[in-house]
Amino acid sequence: MEPAGARHVNVAADDRSLVTRREAARLMSISPKEVDRARHRGDLAAVRYGTKVLIPLDELRRFAAVLPPGDIG
């Protein structure tokens, strides 16, 4: 069972498993700066590949699911 007010990130099963911070922001309807703030608070895990910051889609779904209603969009 999902928490009340859980958010869903709409990503097809055949999509990539990692997204850039800009793609994560677009999927969540927030700014890339908000993605960075969540990362720096430790609320959203990311990995570095060279100079790119990549966010696993499963992590993005987890982050969206635990946000209280009204925190996004």
What would you note in describing this structure?
With 73 residues, the chain is an alpha+beta fold. The chain has a domain at 20-50. Helices cover 38% and strands 15% of the residues. The chain is built from three helices and three strands; from the N terminus they run E-H-H-E-E-H. It has a three-stranded antiparallel beta sheet. Helix 1 packs across helix 2 (32-41). The longest helix is centred in the middle third of the chain and has 10 residues, at 32-41. It is globular, with a radius of gyration of 12 Å.
Summary keywords:
73 residues, 3-stranded antiparallel beta sheet, 15% strand
Question: What does the secondary structure layout of this molecule look like, with pairings?
Answer:
Layout: E1 18-20, H1 21-28, H2 32-41, E2 47-49, E3 52-56, H3 57-66
Antiparallel strand pairs: 1-3, 2-3
Question: Can I get a quick summary?
Answer:
Helices cover 38% and strands 15% of the residues. It has 73 residues and is an alpha+beta fold. It has a three-stranded antiparallel β-sheet with strand order 1-3-2.
Order of helices and strands: EHHEEH
The secondary-structure class comes to: alpha+beta
Helix content: 25-40%
Count of DSSP H/I helices: 3
Cα distance spanning the termini: 23 Å
Q: Based on DSSP secondary structure assignment, what is the total number of beta strands?
A: 3
Give the CA-based shape. Answer: globular
Overall pLDDT level: 82
Radius of gyration: 12 Å
Largest sheet, in brief, is: 3 strands, antiparallel
Unreliable stretches, pLDDT < 50, 5 or more residues? none
**Assembly type:** single chain
Q: Strands of the largest sheet, in order across it? A: 1-3-2
User: Percent of residues in beta strands?
Assistant: 15-25%
